[in-house]
Amino acid sequence: MALTLQTLKNSLSRGEFEPIYLIQGTDLYLMEQVRAAFTAIVAPEDRSMNLATFDMREQPLGAAIDDSRAMPFFGERRVVIIDNAYFLTGETGGKIEHYVEDLQTYMAHPEPQTILVIFAPFEKLDGRKKITKQLKELPGYLTFGKIEEKEIRQMINERLAEQGYQMTAAAGNRLIELTNLNLTQIMAELDKLMLYSIDTKVIEEAAVDALVSRTLNQDVFELINLLLHRKITPAVMLYHQLILNGEEPLRLQGAILGQFRLLVQAKGSKLSEKGLATALSVHPYRVKLARQTVRSFGYKDLAQAFLGLVNMEKQLKSTRRDPELLFELFILRFQNQS
């Protein structure tokens, strides 16, 4: 059975350890959950002696392996953490030279009282490397792929329940929408929301709207919704505000084009949400939102709007015309198209 975060936490809490673990993934929140679980193995008063961390961008792999061979000082277990194990990827040219043979030798005869934890915060590892294959075959290999919306909602509910809070359904949906299903951002925003709602212990949608930080992608998503529903004045005001806030016109245009391209693809494709997400290398939640957005719009209208945005980008790059004027001309044409 594949190792999961929950099974890992359960085994560690029971005192059942593997000698070596490989933890792979890019979600900061989940990686920190794993780090905290391993750190908790060593009593706080013993951590200065029995908990060691080695950053592979600053220290050689050999130093971490040598430390792993050391016996615990006045304790039962020693935990050695290897951070940024980029030697497992295709990345080259680091200033530190790593000899993976040291790790391979250690894997054959690991120190029984040491738990070696290798963190690889990368989406992909180089599967052609022998050391990568060996580590992935270990029972202590845990990888975090793209997390499903259902799993994230469950984590939100568990976090709220632990702290004695509730969240309205509308607030939960708005939080998911504004964070684009980014788990690390969601958990950071929850801290703010719980502090804001400390008197009632209930998080409302108004609090989410007021407190959750907006990304450019979210602002662009809202802008496109306004455009599609022919809400011209609010769309112009939002575009103007984004420019006023310092967004580069070409960067903003690129984000709008990218989102509109996804809408066109979502409308025209017959693939499932997961299938289209895999084909486009985007999160399934983005495809879900795109399909919800375009449900009541025709493919022809979306395609014409996309071509209008392409033309606007060409003018931004080739002329000195005011970006806001070009945007207003674009939406006027879009409003009048059949």
TrEMBL record:
The keyword Transferase applies. GO terms for biological process: DNA-templated DNA replication. GO terms for cellular component: DNA polymerase III complex. Residues 218-334 form the DNA polymerase III delta subunit-like C-terminal domain. Keywords: DNA replication, DNA-directed DNA polymerase, Nucleotidyltransferase, Transferase. PANTHER family: DNA POLYMERASE III SUBUNIT DELTA (PTHR34388:SF1). Belongs to the DNA polymerase HolA subunit family. This is DNA polymerase III subunit delta.
